[in-house]
Amino acid sequence: MTARSHAHWLISAAVGLAVLLCTISLNGIIDNRAWVPGVLTTVPVVLLAMSLARSLRLPALLAPVPGVLALIAALTAQFSPNANALGFIPNQATFQYLPLLISRAESTIMSQVAPVLPTDGILLMASAAVGVVTIIVDTLAVSLRMPAVSGLGLLALLVVPAVVLPDSISLPAFLAAAAGFLIVLGTAHALEQRRRTTDRTRGVLFRRGTAVAIVCMTATAVLPLAIPGFTSGSFPHGSRLDMFGSGTGLNPVVSLGRDLRNPQGFGRITYATNSDEPLYLRSTTLENFSGDRWEPEPREVDRRAGLDVIGEGSILRQMEFQDTTLTRITTGSFNSPWLLTPYAPLSVDGIEGNWTWDPKTLTILGDNTTTTRQDYMVLSIDPNATRRQLSSAPAAFPGMVDDRFFAVPNGTPEIVSDTALRVTQNRPNSYEKALAIQDYLRGPDFSYSLDAPVDGGYDGNSMDVIAAFLEERSGYCVHYAGSMAVMARIAGIPSRIAIGYVPGTSTGETVPGLGGQELKEYSVNSRDAHAWPELYFEGVGWVAFEPTPSRGVVPEYAQDDVPDGGDDEPDALDPRRDRPAPQPSVQSETEPAVDQAAGGGSSSGQDVTWVAVVVPGLLLLGLLPWGIRRLRRRTALRGGTAVAAWQELRDTAVDLGHPLAVSDTPRTFAARLAARTDLGDADAVALHRLRSAYEKAQYGKEPLSVRRSSDESLWQDLNTVREALTSRASRTDRLRAALWPASLWRRS
Amino acid sequence: MGIHQYDDSTASPALHSFHDSSERILAAMDTVIDGKPAATRTALTVLLAQGHLLVEDVPGVGKTMLAKTLARTVDCSVTRIQFTPDLLPSDVTGVSIYNQDTHSFEFRQGPVFANLVIGDEINRASAKTQSALLECMEEHQVTVDGKTHRLGDPFMVVATQNPIEMEGTYPLPEAQRDRFMARISMGYPDAQSEMDMLESHQGSSPLESIRPVVSGTDIAAMIGIVRSLHVSTAVKEYTVALGRATREHPHLKLGASPRALLQLLRAAKASAALQGRDFVLPDDVAGMSDAVLAHRLILDRKASSSGETPSGVIAAILAATPVPATTQNRAMARR
Questions:
Q1: Which residue of A has its CA nearest to B9?
Q2: pLDDT per residue as tens digits for the range A370-402
Q3: What global pTM score does this model have?
Q4: Which among B286, B326, B335 has CB closest to A699?
Q5: Is the peptide bond before A645 cis (omega within 30 degrees of 0)?
Q6: What does each C-alpha distance from B67 to A202, A723, B225, B325 come to in angstroms?
């Protein structure tokens, strides 16, 4: 009876756990696990409000109302800390501020592809959505007593990653969600069973249920791996047969898309660098667009042997003023004729085999040798191009750089040239034009998709494909880079496409470099494969741009801005970096170093918030049993019935270590209690009165509703016995009764 | 459970007089039966619950004395039948005799026509005679030559049986033991009680000194009160749970019959009334379950050869059966 009346706390706790487990699937959607603190705050607050409402005997169907109110309060406190009343009550200012956040979040969703940057708006939407799901699941599982149906609510959380992420829900996330659902089912079932059956059958049922669940989950996890093409159902993401078909290595042209679509990611490459930021690794460039698609230029004649000194002319001149970067690259099984280096390489050390480099593109090609199992050092420079330099760069014309960087094939589709001219018109200089093209491609009209090209049959970067891409406005980096390069050429800017890898993820380890300096290690695999355009500016050199929304996110303030730095500056906009993007100001030419410092600061700030949330959270969790027990006592007091008084007495006794058997009648329990604790006469009489009142209420003639005992003596008796029991208990028993009240877990 | 516990100050006046009468009966019986308050109390409980009592024990511990004492304290008709192998059914129920004056058959009532029938050594009679008595017990009536004759009200059979002497006896079959509401064993009295007994039985028999303390109508009224006692759903559920547990128990070949449960609840009501309560507690049911159920349960061969007893099984069942709360309360708690 008592167990039943507070069973909803247990089910709600299970619901909370299940929702939190399901949110693990948000991992690939929002970067940096930034949703965790918000969700960890919102879910308990909402559940607490709903459970309290139930404990206060509010009609069961009204429980969502306090839940919604608590959700609003929690969101207000978290996301509108400066515009509210009393810290958590929304006021007019809040209702002006929050829609702003939401509209920003909308534009983020429109312009970015998962994982998105954790802006306040996104976090607000995530917390709100999880909160609403929590209310729905809790209402289904507890109020409506349909724990099985509550899985639909949890499913709603999984639908987002299933639709958005290219490789659908990850296995751990799925297993976590399934486990959460099973916890809800199991808790509800166990509580139901406890009411009905004996211990023996309950154990059997529980074991049987667990076995069935484990078999089902294992099958779900293993079957898709065993059966190729099993995924081509609702969310086709290409065939997993590719896993065995394609070798590792960076095929410079179209197989890049297939690499990206591979859900596993293969060909792990690690690199360690003394640069403060992770680097783009460049493999080759595509500059020949004379045919029907972008291809590497076979300039065998120009190639020069030896990697001790790479580059000439302008690059070597710049070197004196620029920082150099040391990078150690381990290729593993990565197999390609082109050597991976950061741009722009100055020298390569420790490489095996004969290699040649192209002075026009600084790409390094093996002479009958490949990159497999190489471990080499690259010295590169970071050309610190500034906005001012770029803006003042004169328009390039053939002769400054090789003609081939200008070449646009005849018969360019109208949509390509029209779009290029329309986007770049009224822009004063090359830099502005380049920015305009990038902004256009990053705009909300375009969406990142690894699948559209496959379905549309235009996996590649021919002119037709680019035209189709501009039509469909959906594609991946090859299309974005190809389009931008073509449009730049149409606008008169020399361009080429670089193929390589985005910076990848930090392994968190360091590798000793030359002279005892520590190099930070990162790893990339085939899923980090990328293509990006490089545009030439006279006096500055080749500058990388990032038109692909999935791989580089331009925050809204920088929509009309481009990094003032040089080639590797677009890295700063990559969401895969380990720290949030720096925020270059439109007016000032902020130094990258300053940006990094700011980035690092905000990262440690996040750690502090994390601690600030988790520590009190754990403390609160620890005090939860005490709080619930106290609440029960007060509810009993308010109820004022003999039944409540007896139950409270029984709970107190159980807390203090006097166990209650299922077959105990009030009499046998009272007799044992009195004997064990050696109660005095007055206390024994009080116990006797409590027992008689309870018996009468429980088994007597009058209906229960009129058995509201108004006389205070019952409660005096209760207090007398409670004090007697407490005073006879040892100190450890008392402490345990306060912090870990056994009556909350046992049937009483 | 205290024996003479009177724990409800708000009981009705009827219950007050009930309690007074029962205390008088028990006090009177205790003057004769030394040191056996539980046995006397169970005997009275069975009388008030309109059941029949089987007293089973070795000779000489006061089985017949108990039956006689109970009969003496109540002012009602008492007969005693000494069962022997040659006793005929008509010796119990009565016979039709041809009356030459009226030229018709007349029914002459047998010893069973009394309020209290003491059947001594019931297992010495033939099965035919036993079943004649058992029929009367169940139906409270006798049918002879197509005419039905009502038996007394109240009507109670106290039968004794000797388990030791097996030669020339016809032990009651299980089905017939089911007709008895309760079975008790007297057991040997303790040393002090035995001393007292030797003392008091020196002169005249103490049975002679007993005067009836209540009348037959008083007993009928008390039976009425017992019938009107409130039994909550929870207690009924508990009774049913106990019964089902005996049927599902792995060591039992035969569990409690529905009639057994009916009688258990009736006995529990009488027990509650004897304690001055106008409602039944699970404790009442548990307290009566050994007396009411033990003689009906049959152990399987393995359990009986390993030394288990029906009483032991009942104790185990009592320790494992949850005590339910009332349904209304559960409904409230569920919210």
A1: A692
A2: 777 888 888 887 766 677 777 777 777 766 777
A3: 0.48
A4: B326
A5: no
A6: 49, 50, 23, 38
